[in-house]
Design a protein that fits this description.
The structure is a homodimer. The first copy, chain A, has 14 helices and 11 strands. By secondary structure, the first copy, chain A, is an alpha/beta fold.
Chain lengths: 422, 422
């Protein structure tokens, strides 16, 4: 893209990460959630961090403006964790705001201006009724040509899903298998909003029907359950309820430091090996709905900077705001060839015990999707997996190279990061 | 603040700057205004710039979410000026969003990741009725403790103004003199929203009264005019209408490049010598309403990085969202001692022909205040003055060291930049 391979002026390391519980918390604001995430991050730093030593904050947030009537959130969250008078900057690129905050923190340390930077994301969504949340999220579409024509995000991603089906022969069951896998992972994540597998959900509904003496549904497996329009209604065909990530309140934080001081904070620091970001035209302008230019651009930049290729990556957290999004993501990232992601998912390659585990956290689908925080939530999972602290969902191999992929809207923005030890 | 003086990894230069006309444009969106500013910037680059050579965009915007129902504005404006698939990031720190975009662009080049970065700001405000604009801007206050208690920005700045009067003995006339000076400058700025001096406004009203055969007001001078509550109603005492910056649509752009390639774009590039940013508690939490910690912090960082002191600065564009704000600004910047700014203004020191010209563009007061764009609008004035291209408002001395000071809300954020040639 650029005349030379992108390169950072100095190395940056990840030395801490933590998140709030993701879910619906009627009594909490985005600033409360941020404080919760901050404390979790502080606890994660092996050798401790004094708040006074943090030099700047970058906070990702999609729209506290629309969700809470609160703009200028950055200095407020800075104040609530004790950072005043340090610089506090909000970055916004819709649902990739968290990933972009991470990137800006990395760039700031690489510039030499800071050595210790807090990056985070926060979003409080559940205080609005569901239909207003959908409208609010639609503000991230191109409102002149998409939102104003009645498109909301389930519809936009449904268009991508039908294009993918038409081009590659995937079926709705393939989308469902993404959700089944991610809920299976999320069931093992105590901070996930929906920490239940689809099988558990199905079984508990069967149990309930039995207890109430109602007709017991004849679901033989999760696919039967997900094809039942009463249990899993269509939102925008082919996207059903369980193809959509939930509406979530949550926050996440990560601590970045210059590589040369990383050992002062962490026994075994994780290096930021690559960062990439790209943009794309709004969906209505694109020639091909089955791939996102911003994601391919961001991935190429990150791989080049890290000097690695897709096959080197051990695990990845990717942006599964809808099940179709995960399939597009793992093709854009080069993990699978175009049109092969649904077959790979069906074959179990992306499961926790597969060759390329994707969204071991449960992904946005099961862990939850507090939009501005999701990009940093992904980092929290990478942090745990790389340190073998992921408990029941720990992958059974050494993770020395991991990736996050965070998308804004239908891909107007994508940001990719590569984490490693070498 | 930090254990070592902040320093950028490599030099950054300003090689172009341009703005849209500031005003009320019912037929234009924030993206249209951005395109207008972009074209003005392109024209300003001595040796030209190819859009394809620009590697990234940082755009300041307070709340296209609330003003236009449009979030995720960064990739949209990137698309409209032909930058896809380059990274496009929105930064938001209320009315300092533009200044923070400038800072992030500088940091990005200093990091080594990019060589050529577009920074800009855009805001479309006038499509909402005035009272809704006031409410929308109040979202930049701490809405739990200020906005929700009925405070809007004229009231918040009125509290600062009364505190300043009580502490230092300033009168309402001193505030008025700031407005008179800034309108005098803005009258000479063809891109200003109100390019009329207070004297011109007064004279034209007298003329109108005469033509209509109405009673001719007995205003002997501008102060008489400004003290007339019919001509200049009280908004929140002691802030009257002409103490408040207007509601404005507008955009501005600047082009930054690595110092070592600056001569490829510009005959006589302007160096970024210093950048500083700070945060402060919300107004309701502060001990002293007559000074802003974020501004003092940002100024100190910028001066230290540039290796200069306040007395070295030839001209400055400061954040005069209200007249009181300019007095606080020029004290926080160290141009005048605490409690001396109003006397200096009265003595003409801050006038275009004074020893320390402030807001030669007309400032936010007269040029207009499209909130997310204002910080870059300030850069456009510095660009013109340093190149002796400011026409009728050109200061009559060489400007080799200039400063911008951009405030978010009541000072939750402040960002300061120092521009120079040496």
């Amino acid at each position: 893209m650029s005349p030379r391979a992108p390169k950072l002026g100095r190395g940056v390391a990840l030395v801490g990460a933590g998140m709030s519980r993701f879910g619906a918390f009627p009594d909490k604001t985005s600033r409360d959630l941020f404080v919760e995430a901050f404390h979790a991050m502080v606890k994660s730093v092996d050798k401790g961090i004094e708040t006074g030593d943090i030099q700047a904050l970058y906070v990702g947030n999609f729209s506290s403006d629309l969700f809470e009537g609160q703009g200028h959130i950055a200095p407020i969250v800075a104040d609530w964790v004790g950072l005043v008078p340090k610089p506090a900057t909000r970055v916004e690129d819709a649902c990739s705001s968290g990933g972009v905050a991470l990137r800006e923190g990395i760039i700031a340390i690489a510039s030499g201006i800071y050595d210790i930077v807090l990056v985070g994301g926060t979003e409080k969504m559940t205080n609005l009724p569901t239909e207003r949340v959908t409208d609010t999220l639609a503000a991230a579409s191109d409102t002149l040509y998409e939102g104003s024509c009645g498109f909301t995000f389930p519809g936009l991603y449904a268009a991508m899903a039908t294009a993918y089906m038409a081009k590659y022969g995937a079926s709705v069951e393939h989308f469902m298998k993404v959700g089944i896998k991610n809920h299976r992972n999320g069931a093992l994540n105590p901070k996930a909003q929906f920490n239940k597998s689809i099988r558990d959900l199905m079984d508990s509904r069967i149990e309930k029907a039995k207890q109430k003496g109602e007709a017991v549904p004849d679901w033989r497996n999760e696919i039967d359950f997900l094809k039942d329009s009463k249990a899993n209604p269509i939102v925008a065909w082919p996207m059903r309820l369980f193809d959509c990530s939930p509406i979530t309140d949550g926050a996440a934080c990560a601590l970045l430091v210059a590589e040369d001081i990383a050992k002062d904070f962490c026994h075994d620091p994780i290096q930021i090996l690559g960062t990439g970001q790209g943009s794309d035209h709004a969906l209505h302008e694109r020639q091909d709905l089955t791939t996102i230019l911003a994601a391919r651009t961001a991935a190429r930049e990150a791989y080049d900077m890290a000097g690695v290729e897709p096959e080197d990556i051990a695990i990845a957290e990717v942006h599964d705001c809808f099940t179709i999004a995960e399939l597009v993501a793992i093709e854009d990232l080069g993990f699978f060839k175009p049109g092969e992601a649904y077959k790979a998912t069906e074959a179990g390659l992306t499961a926790r015990d597969g060759s390329k585990p994707i969204n071991t956290s449960g992904g946005l689908k099961s862990k939850g999707h507090p939009v501005g925080a999701s990009g940093i939530g992904q980092v929290v999972e990478i942090w745990h997996q790389m340190r073998k602290e992921a408990g029941a969902r720990q992958v059974q191999k050494d993770v020395n190279l991991a990736l996050t992929h965070n998308v804004g809207a239908t891909g107007g923005t994508c940001v990719v990061h590569i984490f490693g030890r070498r």
